Amino acid sequence: MKIAIGSDHAGFRLKEHVKGFLLSQGITVLDCGTDSEESCDYPFFCYAVAKAVTSRRARFGILICKTGIGSAIAANKVKGIRAGLCHNPEGATLTREHNHANILVMGAMFVSPKMSEKIISAFLKAIPQKGRHARRVREISWIEDGSIEERAPVPRCRRIDGGN
């Protein structure tokens, strides 16, 4: 198995730990940067990891920044990516089972090196579920390709005044 990994400066130390953990598990790592703790912008690393996954150069991706929020947002802009931000093993299992995530995102501010190993292990062991979960992933792809309104009735928002 090959996993693409990337981080910004705030996630660099955890990325290096994760890289060592993956290698110790016999997993090939495609390191998409960054290469130091020097300040840098995370969207470029997110894009590199996402493209490695969508091009099938890597089976999965792992992204790490300070909170994980920005990296998840950036990676999810790439068609075909389902990046899930996880801070515990239970969330990692569910993001694979229910959302068929192909990129795991972690926040270095919230995840210790030891916890990252548990999160990654849970993510890699989980199997995407079929049925309603597969249907929902398909519906997400309709949003992504802009066809959802052609395929299904979309609820309309209605205004409710608060009296002010």
Task: Kindly summarize this structure in a few lines.
The chain is built from seven helices and five strands; from the N terminus they run E-H-E-H-E-H-E-H-E-H-H-H.
Provide a descriptive summary of the structure in words.
The protein is α/β, with parallel strands linked by helices. The chain has one domain (2-149): Sugar-phosphate isomerase, RpiB/LacA/LacB (Ribose 5-phosphate Isomerase B, Chain: A, 3-Layer(aba) Sandwich), CATH 3.40.1400.10. It has 7 helices and 5 strands; from the N terminus they run βαβαβαβαβααα. It has helices spanning 12-24, 43-54, 69-75, 89-97, 113-125, 132-145, 148-151; strands spanning 2-7, 28-31, 60-65, 83-85, 103-107. Strands 2-1-3-5-4 form a 5-stranded parallel sheet, sandwiched between helices. Helix 2 (43-54) crosses helix 3 and helix 4 (89-97) packs parallel to helix 5. It is globular. The model has no long low-confidence stretch (mean pLDDT 97).
